[in-house]
Write a structure and sequence with these properties.
Blueprint: H1 7-42, H2 47-50, H3 52-70, H4 78-102, H5 109-145, H6 167-179, H7 184-191, H8 195-203
Length: 217
């Protein structure tokens, strides 16, 4: 059987990966940011406002990626997917156009556009990876902490239920007592009914009560 990863070592590995992806995302965002700011400035947007355009375009990539992971499998997930694809498409196209315009004459336009398309694509991929890593690790830790207890060894106290009028409640407790090997007479005494009534319960279909976890307040 494969060795189980210790929660502490798993946490260290995940956060090491997250720190690395954050550094890569910052670098990719900065390259894309400077290119899109320069393109916005060349397009006539004021210098004092040009910086906002890359924040809008690449911000859609970040927010859309987080929303896609958060809404995975739900009906409304199509909308963040649409925003994500639109933001990534605009960012890649704008970075490529800027590279072609700003590249030296001896550089092939295809080469310049391909290089410029890398930062927004890396930003898209690395943001998605960061969100998935943190979400999967959080679910793993939660499932480990909330692992079900072994109910076969859990002690459930049984008291006399002669003061409980609900027939269904008595039948459920009777089934639990029967599983513990108690006789019909003992069950009848504990539940406050006649032994023949207990016999009729077990002659028909009797449900097995659910043992609810946790203490009642």
């Amino acid at each position: 059987m494969p060795a189980t990863t210790h929660p502490r070592s798993g946490r260290i590995a995940v956060w090491t990966a997250v720190v690395g992806t954050v550094f890569i995302a910052v670098g990719a965002f900065w390259l894309s940011f400077t290119a899109l700011t320069d393109l916005a400035d060349a397009a006539g947007i004021a210098v004092t406002q040009a910086w906002a355009w890359p924040l809008i375009v690449d911000g859609i990539i970040v927010v859309g990626t987080v929303a896609v992971v958060a809404l995975a499998g739900q009906r409304g997930a199509w909308y963040p997917w649409m925003l994500l694809m639109a933001g990534a498409g605009v960012s890649v196209a704008a970075n490529s156009i800027h590279a072609v315009v700003a590249a030296d004459a001896d550089v092939l336009p295809v080469l310049a556009a391909s290089i410029a398309a890398v930062p927004p694509l890396v930003l898209l991929a690395i943001t998605h990876l960061t969100v998935v890593l943190t979400q999967r690790f959080r679910l793993h830790v939660s499932s480990t902490a909330d692992s079900p207890r072994d109910l076969s060894t859990e002690v459930v106290p049984i008291r006399s239920l002669s003061d409980v009028p609900e027939k269904g409640a008595r039948r459920d407790v009777a089934a639990l007592m029967r599983q513990r090997g108690m006789s019909n007479k003992e069950i009848a005494s504990a539940t406050g009914v006649h032994p023949s009534t207990v016999g009729r319960w077990f002659a028909g279909a009797i449900g097995t009560p659910e043992v609810q976890k946790g203490a009642t307040s």
